[in-house]
Design a protein that fits this description.
- This protein is α/β, with parallel strands linked by helices.
- It has a domain at 6-169 and 198-228 and 290-296: Rossmann fold, CATH 3.40.50.
- 41% of the residues lie in helices and 29% in strands.
- The chain contains 10 helices and 12 strands.
- It has helices at residues 6-20, 23-34, 52-59, 75-88, 117-123, 144-154, 180-193, 206-216, 242-257, 265-280; strands spanning 41-46, 65-72, 91-95, 98-103, 106-114, 130-136, 155-174, 195-196, 199-200, 220-226, 229-231, 285-296.
- Strands 1, 2, 3, 4, 5, 6, 7, 10, 11 and 12 form a 10-stranded mixed β-sheet that branches. The protein has a two-stranded antiparallel sheet with strand order 8-9.
- Strand 3 and strand 4 form a beta hairpin.
- Helix 1 (6-20) packs across helix 9 (242-257) and helix 9 packs antiparallel against helix 10 (265-280).
- The longest helix is centred in the last third of the chain and has 16 residues, at 242-257.
- The protein binds S-adenosylmethionine.
- S-adenosylmethionine (SAM) is lined by residues 10, 13, 47-49, 52, 72-74, 77, 116-117, 136-138, 141-142.
Length: 303
């Protein structure tokens, strides 16, 4: 019996995201950050989870000196982020709540804020705005236009944003099953109807919606491209902890749709059991369509 853990899922997701992140969009981000010179870049990461984006941007040579705020409502994930960065770095020093981690060319002063994103951004001081806001696999869990306007409010005028791994309405499993069409339609609908703290919490077409919502809220979209997750078995099984990643995805769909009145309960239970069996035998492939975007925030006061 699998024990499910959000933190294990987020660590298992790292290699899947590594393959998926759109390198063209990332190159535009990298070039734009080099225009800022040698001073530490002030970065806010929304929904930072277990901290794998900061270590990735260090490993990939995208960041050198940075003051990096990891913001997440989940304190357990942030504790895991701190442990991950301590284990990953070549050197670690602590001053109060700030962890300074060094590895190769990266020197990051990381702080960890366990708070809801809208609340944090509403209270953020105008004198402590950010050069860059990063959000990976998180804007599709939020109401889009309000979160964009809140982000423009915490960025310096003409600050940068990089929103990656935004789900965009297509989930594919191989081998195909006759129930897939109904399961995916209802699963995507459950994302569109999801509420948290009394407000809409995401949409299944966030990726494509970003392409117009960014301009509509006064910012410039400079680069966009797909960042599909593609998970497949090799000769010796799945890479890294990706079998767990797949089990967690199937479990999430099971939790979202179990007892749904538009699904036959026995057929759905068989579908779930078959998907778990295919993971166990190294037969299941999984694709989720997603988009990455990079751009420049409004130059003046956000509208
Ligand atoms: C799918 S996970 C992605 C985590 C990380 N960015 C990554 O890609 O590994 C989404 C994260 O966003 C956080 N989150 C979701 N809604 C949030 C909100 N309104 N405020 C703060 N954090 C939020 C969750 O706690 C979770 O850690």
């Amino acid at each position: 019996m699998t024990e499910y853990s959000d933190q294990r899922y987020l660590h298992a997701k790292r290699t899947v995201d590594d393959r998926a992140l759109n390198r063209g969009v990332l190159d535009v981000l990298h070039a734009s950050l080099s225009e800022l010179g040698e001073r530490p870049v002030r970065i806010l990461e929304i929904g930072a989870g277990v901290g794998t984006m900061l270590s990735r941007l260090g490993d990939w040579g995208v960041l050198r000196r940075t003051d990096y705020v990891l913001l997440d409502r989940d304190a357990t994930s942030l504790a895991s982020a701190r442990a991950h960065l301590e284990g990953w770095a070549d050197s670690v020093t602590t001053a109060g709540e700030v962890l300074t981690v060094k590895k190769a060319a990266l020197e990051a002063r990381a702080s960890f804020v366990a708070e809801e994103a809208f609340a944090f951004m509403a209270a953020a001081s105008a004198s402590a705005r950010f050069d860059l806001v990063v959000a990976n696999a998180v804007l599709d869990l939020m109401e889009l236009e309000p979160v964009l306007r809140a982000i423009w409010g915490v960025l310096k005028p003409a600050g940068r944003f990089w929103f990656s791994i935004n789900f965009d309405g297509d989930t594919i499993f191989e081998p195909e099953s006759p129930l897939d069409e109904a399961v995916m339609r209802l699963y995507h609908r459950s994302m569109d109807e999801r509420m948290r703290d009394g407000r809409p919490a995401g949409h299944s077409k966030t990726g494509r919606r970003l392409l117009t919502a960014i301009g509509a809220t006064g910012a410039d979209l400079c680069a966009a491209g797909s960042s599909d997750w593609v998970v497949f078995p090799r000769a010796r099984g799945y890479a890294g902890d990706e079998a767990y990643f797949l089990r967690h995805i199937v479990h999430t769909i099971d939790e979202a749709l179990s007892g749904h009145r538009e699904l036959d309960a026995a057929q759905f239970a068989t579908w779930v059991a078959e998907r778990f069996g295919q993971i166990e035998r190294g037969e299941l492939c999984y694709i989720a369509h997603q988009l990455d975007v990079f751009g420049i925030a409004p130059k003046g006061v956000p509208g």
